[in-house]
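Students often ask why we bother encoding 3D structure as a string. The short answer is that it lets us treat folding as translation between two languages. Here is a chain of 423 residues written in the first language.
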Amino acid sequence: MTISRRTVLGTGLVLAAKPWRAIPNAAAAPASAQPAVARASSIVVPNGSVLPSTIRDGVRIFHLRAEELDHEIAPGLKIKAWGYNGSTPGPVIEAVEGERVRIYVTNALPERTSVHWHGLFVPHGMDGVAGLTQPPIEPGKTFRYEFVLDRAGTFMYHPHADEMTQIALGMMGMIVVHPRKQARERVRDFCLMSHEMSVHIGTARPDPLAMNDFNVLTFNGKAFPATAPLVAETGDRIRIRLANLGPMDHHPIHLHGHAFEVVATDGGPIPTSARILETTVLVPVGTTRTVEFVGKAGDWALHCHMTHHAMNQMGHDAANLVGVNTKGLDQRIARIAPGYMTMGTNGMSEMAHMQMEQPRNSISMVGGKGPHGVIDMGSMFTIVKVRDKLAGDGDPGWYQAPAGTTATEATADELSRDGIKVT
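And here it is in the second language, the structure alphabet:
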């Protein structure tokens, strides 16, 4: 019998957003023979980046390169992926409504591709469906897409050519179009794209034929503990743009310690009168959801609430040993497999607390270090870190809760005082 093992992880990297500064209207921008340097980004892409751009003759210009790449999901798990500009997801494309954009796409893949601007309303011939609205981009070729961004919002880009394979291997990215008029309120503006893959234990190439049992689930291409925390100050308005281009699964994304409003979808803003307070938002496949809330001090978990989506690289062919009496089993198996130890009879938590030799290129049974011990979570799990005052944009470390406000073991006097009998 092959015992597959599952994983758990814990912490990250950090950036903090700066207030958005609008750029001049593209139509009024002066013509120039030399490309202008693009403005500083107003968004934060934990573990990711914003695609550089230039302005030439009033047009904002980008260059995407579709290519194979090596990608580390978490320490101990590296994959052979397909993506854009050296990453999966690809870098975020950021611009302002009303701008004309010109996006060059170079195909460095071994097969034809295209790019669809998911949720954007573009001219028919720019829609990016190979064979329908355009010829495919053959290997080695570069195509030009050009259109005006007619509305603000959070959108996505991905291939519409052999998308089953190309999306499964990591080809996707987010698009943020800011409104022309910006509110003066300080906003911490984050982008998180979810994805799921099937990476069999010991292998490096995601399986594009998988339709269920995905065992690697990520935020911005990373699994906890490699996911970067989202950092803000107490009282900041925090905006999180959530996008889902995974092959099959919807994700109920849950935030601890706060209620938020869903303020927009990829279809447009939600009127204030139609918003309700939530702590969990369902992000279906092929959609974006934008949530906003005001941060309060603490380290707050943000994760998919499908329990298997917050665990790492489970092998689904493992036997269920919970409650099994395995007395004497270890000694018998150790005769042919020295060092064998049965695990899982009392639940799975122990698997995160023990360091054991791993199969090649896997993140099974890895625990994440937290301020009170191992955080036995993984995959689509990250942390919103809110502090009264930040000293820079780096990770502020673990939150120090005020004395007497952390759950602790009850004393005998406390139990007696409140009439609690423990048997």
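Translate back mentally: The first helix runs from residue 163 to 168. Keep this in mind for the problem set.
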